[in-house]
Design goal:
The longest helix is centred in the last third of the chain and has 30 residues. This protein has one domain. Helix content is about 80%, strand content about 0%. Helix 2 runs antiparallel to helix 3 and helix 4 packs antiparallel against helix 8. The chain contains 8 helices and no strands. It is globular. By secondary structure, the chain is mainly α. Its main location: membrane.
């Protein structure tokens, strides 16, 4: 049980950092669009990567070379720039506040969620390599507890920020507020893109 708590707290400390994936989940919550699907994809992805890292760390550690990390960073930068450009082109008048709005179809949202999840090298460094390295000396049983704790923190975090954003969205049904939110998202994503660019160069 101690390792379950340790895994929970360790996973939570890693996932609390503001990142592109978290911002995307919050945005979908505010828009009330496919929140459950987005949170579920992020949570399951983390679950798979966490246990992949915990049980295969000693093998994967040799493959995550600086070259592989560079490739992921370049792909993430391209993905972020594409997303930012899309937000810049979006007009606030096109934003719908309807719960059943389908301005973004499901396949598009799934692709974006997977992109924000698997094109981010920090997802691998946090879940696969940090947690894998951290738990490498644990016994087989303790690894299960540790991984379960980290996975639970991930599930709770994504669903809380997703549905908490949905709750607060009812106070944000204003074009002016949404314009400011859009600007903030562009600002955050631009900072993240700049950070990724600095890592590349």
């Amino acid at each position: 049980m101690d390792y379950l708590i340790l895994g929970f707290l360790t996973g939570l400390s890693l996932i609390l950092a503001i990142g592109a994936q978290n911002i995307f989940v919050i945005e979908q919550g505010l828009k009330k669009q496919y929140i459950f699907i987005v949170c579920l994809i992020c949570s399951i992805s983390d679950f798979l990567l966490i246990f992949l890292g915990i049980f295969l760390f000693q093998y994967l550690n040799h493959f995550f070379t600086p070259t592989i990390e560079l490739v992921f960073n370049i792909l993430l930068l391209i993905f972020l720039l594409h997303f930012i450009w899309g937000k810049i082109k979006t007009k606030v008048s096109e934003t719908s506040f309807d719960v059943d709005s389908k301005t973004n179809n499901l396949s598009n949202i799934v692709v974006k969620t997977l992109g924000f999840t698997f094109l981010n090298p920090h997802v691998y460094s946090d879940t696969v390599f940090f947690l894998g390295n951290f738990s490498k000396s644990l016994s087989q049983v303790d690894k299960y507890y540790f991984g379960a704790g980290a996975a639970i923190s991930s599930f709770l975090f994504f669903f809380i920020i997703g549905y908490l954003s949905k709750y607060f969205s009812k106070y944000l049904k204003s074009a002016t507020v949404w314009k400011r939110i859009n600007y903030l998202i562009i600002l955050f994503m631009s900072i993240l893109a700049l950070t990724v660019l600095m890592e590349i160069i």
